[in-house]
Amino acid sequence: MSENKTQLRRRMRAGRRDLSAYQQRLHARAAITLLSRLPQMRRARHIGIYWPIDGELDIRQLLQRFRAKHFYLPVLPVESQPHLRFKRWHGETLSFRNRFHIPEPAAGPCRAPKLLDLVLVPLVAFDPKGARLGMGAGFYDRTFEHKQLLPGAGPQLIGTAHQLQCVEHLPTDNWDIPLDLVVTEKRIYRCR
Ligand SMILES: Nc1nc2c(c(=O)[nH]1)N(C=O)[C@@H](CNc1ccc(C(=O)N[C@@H](CCC(=O)O)C(=O)O)cc1)CN2
Ligand SMILES: Nc1ncnc2c1ncn2[C@@H]1O[C@H](COP(=O)(O)OP(=O)(O)OP(=O)(O)O)[C@@H](O)[C@H]1O
Fold first, then answer.
1. Across all residues in the chain, what is the average pLDDT?
2. Is the per-residue pLDDT at 2 higher than 90?
3. What's its catalytic activity (predicted)?
């Protein structure tokens, strides 16, 4: 029987969590080198990034690499609105944690998701066409919904993951927002 979304999520999350600290560092360094060469990265001024959890690829060193750029972390939606917000982050350690125990900047300016140039998107699994499986709450899909109506609209979405998170084909739902690119420690996938 073929694997369903829940089983695939469990398997991929276990796979990335089981990487050694050494493998994690190697992957992060290699992926950051690939990312740093991308014209999309070089051009971007306002960039969404994430605080890694659960074995996700740790690309926070990008802040040291690109000191002149502005980086933002996702902040969970409040009741009245469905979208993630992105708060300015300078690389400092953070003491506030959201309900999933993920650190968030407590204060500081937010930037509307549409006004970011580039968003580095965490994921659980991806396929070479840019389909993404996330943690299962639909936050990124809802936040970048407008891209479905306006192909070519910003921001560019770049998935970042370990190569082991790549699967041949992911079934998609009509709300899924595809990734423009995916970068792993091994290679760049150009999806759009
Ligand atoms: N690093 C990172 N930050 C991120 C995301 C992400 O995928 N990675 N998100 C992407 O959308 C948002 C958070 N989304 C999440 C959605 C579901 C669960 C989750 O189900 N967590 C627990 C179970 C619930 C709980 O602890 O209360 C779990 O680990 O199974 C976590 C985060 C925003 N920030
Ligand atoms: N644009 C949208 N409008 C309404 N509901 C949505 C939208 N996008 C996603 N959802 C809802 O969110 C739920 C989770 O979606 P999905 O399993 O694709 O999340 P995910 O991409 O894995 O998670 P995440 O983006 O949080 O990492 C779906 O059941 C769907 O009902």
1. 96
2. no
3. (6S)-5-formyl-5,6,7,8-tetrahydrofolate + ATP = (6R)-5,10-methenyltetrahydrofolate + ADP + phosphate
pLDDT of 1 higher than 70: no
Distance 16 CA to ligand 1 centre (A): 15
pLDDT for 150: 87
Give 190's strand partners: 181
CATH number of 5-190: 3.40.50.10420
Q: Enter the pTM of the model.
A: 0.96
Torsions phi, psi of 127, nearest 5? -125, 165
ipTM entry:
0.94
Which residue lies with its CA nearest to atom 27 of ligand 2? 134
Half-sphere exposure of 86 (CA within 13 A, CB side): 24
Distance 133 CA to ligand 1 centre (A): 12
> Residue 160 in contact with residue 59, Cβ under 8 Å?
yes
Grouping H, G, I as helix, E, B as strand and the rest as coil, residue 160 is strand
Q: Which ligand is nearest to the CA of 57?
A: 1
CB 144 less than 6 A from any atom of ligand 2: no
Q: Which two tokens stand for residue 94?
A: 């953070």
**Residue 123 near residue 189 (C-beta atoms within 8 A):** no
